[in-house]
# Entry
Amino acid sequence: MQPIHVGLLGLGTVGGGTLTVLQQNAAEIARRAGREIIVSHASSRSLRMAPEALNRVTIMDDPFQLVVQPEVDIVVELIGGCTPARELVLQAIAQGKHVVTANKALIALHGNEIFAAAQQHGVTVAFEAAVAGGIPIIKAVREGLAANHIEWMAGIINGTGNFILTEMRDKGRDFAEVLQEAQALGYAEADPTFDVEGVDAAHKLTILAALAFGIPLQFSACYTEGIGQVQRQDVSNAARLGYRIKQLAFTRKTPRGIELRVHPTLIPEKCLLANVDGVMNAVLAQGDMVGQTLHYGPGAGALPTASSVVADIIEVARTLTTDPHNRVPHLAFQPSELADIPVLPMAEVTTAYYLRLTAQNKPGVLAAVADILGEAGISIKAMFQQEPESGTCEVPLVMLTHPVQERQMNAALGRISDLPDIADDIVRLRVESLR
# Structure
């Protein structure tokens, strides 16, 4: 059979890794795909590959010229961002070319448009590497768990945030100090906003929720909260209560709608996800037939991510001769069967809470706080008071509540913060049992 010709958009970390995998494992890949796969064209702003790796590759300055090359069968988009990635992908689709991408922002924000175009032109858009790097979670949800109603999914899907919280727990370090080290190690960008504010994880969770529940991609509806508010004392308080703090991406189908949220969360220390440390990623899925399945591995890096990219290329190569109307649907469900289920506002989500308040060390303050919580229908599960620092009259109060709707908690915290004997901001973190 004729070889498959691939055009690479981007030869950076992942693009270079993809070329390396395709060249070093060429024979094994051909055995699996049923034909040879060759990178024939590439476009990149800078070339960091060894010259011998590019001997058989036509380098093009203009990526828009690459996507219209007649001999290119599959366009692999690895440049990141939405501009010009969106335009390049749509043009490739219009040319009847299959697309592979690792671009989570592109899929989360423009996936509905891209998949509709792909359906119209009878081509495939594969995006395994867009979520959790080298972990084949897209195929697991879309195909391996296809017999199940997915009830909920929870993931640690940003390695930078997980590295920071792990260092804070294991070494008692401050957030700012660990963030600086993460930047020095290359785990975090110079502008770490997408990682520490949860935006990166929200992009990935948007994709997982669409696959799990058969809904359109709805990134704008995802609640996102960063980990910058988490302090060393919160990490140690969580350990005292039997929990660990993780930047959790969580989605659940309820009778009222879909929960879609990313925020720092207390997880029981014996839970599998609580023991995912450093830059590693993991996704826990609850199916009605299979129960819980854990998918664990490296969430980033040149070769792990390239492994997923090349797996998509092989999948596309295998399906080139199949009827386009009988391929695995992009979002797991047939396009005509996507459900119009609402995403719940965060105020309507029910969860337990960890609260840390700084109060004046005098009689009646704790009783006033407890009265407000009680009047709001909020039950306290555990509570302790820390020793005041020398020379101060303020003490930290730590509470763990039973589950309650966020709307009730917001109202109660508003009243508590107005008390004259409560100082500073109240730290509120959510708690999930993942049972």
The first helix runs from residue 13 to 24. The chain has a mean pLDDT of 95. The longest strand covers residues 243-254. The domain at 144-298 is CATH 3.30.360.10 (Dihydrodipicolinate Reductase; domain 2).
